[in-house]
From TrEMBL:
Taxonomic source organism: Myotis davidii
Sections of the chain in a coiled coil: none
Keyword line: Kinase, Transferase
Residue span, RH1 domain: 1-75
Pfam families xref list: RH1 (PF09744)
Cross-referenced InterPro entries: JIP3/JIP4, RH1
One Gene Ontology term, aspect cellular component: cytoplasm
Highest taxon above the source species: Eukaryota
Presence of keyword Chloroplast: no
Stated name of the protein: C-Jun-amino-terminal kinase-interacting protein 3
A GO BP annotation: vesicle-mediated transport
Entry GO MF terms: JUN kinase binding; kinase activity; kinesin binding; MAP-kinase scaffold activity; signaling receptor complex adaptor activity
Gene3D superfamilies: 1.20.58.1770
Length: 75
């Protein structure tokens, strides 16, 4: 799990604990699995985004190299 999602999960968990302490675990019983699912999906999307960022950077580097090679061949 990414650091960002882990931090969010920790904050949400503390809030759930506070609600359980004040009211009872029934108030979060249905909500907790939904939040866990959202956090898991968020982590997955962040991971995919990081992969796309790396791929984009590699493509930018390739583009720059191709541009430089094409420029050298013209002279």
């Amino acid at each position: 799990m990414s650091e960002r999602v882990s931090g969010l999960a920790g904050s949400i968990y503390r809030e759930f604990e506070r609600l359980i302490h004040c009211y009872d675990e029934e108030v979060v019983k249905e909500l907790m699995p939904l939040v866990v699912n959202v956090l898991e999906n968020l982590d997955s999307v962040l991971s995919e985004n990081q992969e796309h960022e790396v791929e984009l950077e590699l493509l930018r580097e390739d583009k720059m190299l191709l541009w430089m090679c094409a420029g050298f061949h013209k002279t």
